[in-house]
Backbone:
C-alpha cells in the first residue's frame, strides 16, 4: 500500500487515477452497524471520502453523516477496499450521499425529505460535481427500497430507478457507468416485493448488476445489516462492479 496525502488527490484537473464511486440509497447504504474498536481502526492510505464539508479526507467509519447519532458501518468501506485490491497505484474516492428512511420518490430533482429536511438528489448532485473536480467516476452502488416495500410503490420501483440511474449517468457524463444495487435483507416478508423487482434490474438497466443479500443478518432490529453483513454486502457489490468494469483497470 503506497502513501499518499489528501492534497495529492486534489489537482487542478481531474486525476484519472483517482477512481470515484457514488454511494447512494437509504439507511443500509449509509450504514447502521456498530462501530466496534476493530472497525474504528480500519483505514487505508489510498482510500478517501468526500466528507460533510465537501472536502476529501481519509476514509473511515462512519462514511455517512445523514443521521449522525446513528450512522455506523455500511457497505462502502469494504467495497472500496475490495476495489482497491484490483487497482494497484489507484486512489479510491467515496462519495457518500445516502439518506436514511428515504423513498425512491424523493430521489428526483427538487425532491424533499421531511424527516432529514434535505433534498437527497439535489444534495447528491452538488457533491457529485465537487467530486468530479478531483477524479473520475467509475461506478455507482445503490441500496434502497425498505421505504418502498409495498405493492403500489414496488410496481413503480424499477421505472423510478431506471430514471434515476439515467439522470445520474447523464450528470457524470457516462451513459454506461456501471451500476450495482444490493438486495434488501431477508428480514421482513414485505421486503420481498422490492427484491422481486430488483431481480429484473440487469434486463432493464444496461451495465447493471444485483448483489445478493443471502445469509446476511440484521443487527437485532429486523431492518439494518449488522457490521459483518454490511461488510460482506460491500464485498459482494465490489465483485459485481469488477465484472461490469471488466478490463477497464
Residues:
Amino acid at each position: 500500500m503506497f502513501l499518499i496525502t489528501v492534497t495529492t488527490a486534489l489537482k487542478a484537473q481531474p486525476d484519472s487515477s483517482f477512481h470515484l464511486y457514488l454511494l447512494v440509497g437509504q439507511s443500509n447504504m449509509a450504514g447502521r452497524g456498530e462501530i466496534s474498536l476493530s472497525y474504528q481502526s480500519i483505514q487505508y492510505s489510498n482510500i478517501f471520502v468526500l466528507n460533510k464539508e465537501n472536502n476529501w479526507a481519509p476514509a473511515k467509519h462512519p462514511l455517512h453523516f445523514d443521521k449522525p447519532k446513528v450512522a455506523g458501518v455500511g457497505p462502502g468501506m469494504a467495497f472500496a477496499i475490495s476495489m482497491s485490491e484490483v487497482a494497484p497505484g489507484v486512489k479510491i474516492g467515496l462519495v457518500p450521499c445516502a439518506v436514511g428512511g428515504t423513498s425512491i420518490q424523493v430521489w428526483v430533482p427538487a425532491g424533499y425529505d421531511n424527516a432529514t429536511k434535505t433534498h437527497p438528489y439535489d444534495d447528491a448532485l452538488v457533491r457529485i460535481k465537487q467530486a468530479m473536480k478531483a477524479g473520475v467516476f467509475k461506478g455507482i452502488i445503490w441500496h434502497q427500497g425498505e421505504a418502498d416495500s409495498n405493492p403500489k410503490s414496488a410496481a413503480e420501483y424499477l421505472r423510478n430507478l431506471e430514471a434515476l440511474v439515467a439522470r445520474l449517468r447523464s450528470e457524470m457524463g457516462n451513459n454506461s457507468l456501471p451500476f450495482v444495487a444490493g438486495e434488501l435483507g431477508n428480514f421482513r416478508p414485505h421486503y420481498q416485493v422490492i427484491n422481486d423487482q430488483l431481480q429484473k434490474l440487469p434486463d432493464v438497466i444496461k451495465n447493471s448488476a444485483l448483489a445478493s443479500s443471502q445469509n446476511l443478518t440484521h443487527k437485532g432490529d429486523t431492518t439494518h445489516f449488522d457490521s459483518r453483513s454490511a461488510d460482506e454486502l460491500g464485498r459482494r457489490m465490489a465483485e459485481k462492479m469488477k465484472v461490469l468494469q471488466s478490463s477497464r483497470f
Summary: The two ends are 17 Å apart (CA to CA). The helical segments are 27-30, 37-40, 76-85, 120-131, 151-172, 192-198, 201-204, 227-245. DSSP finds eight helices and seven strands in the chain. The chain has a mean pLDDT of 94.
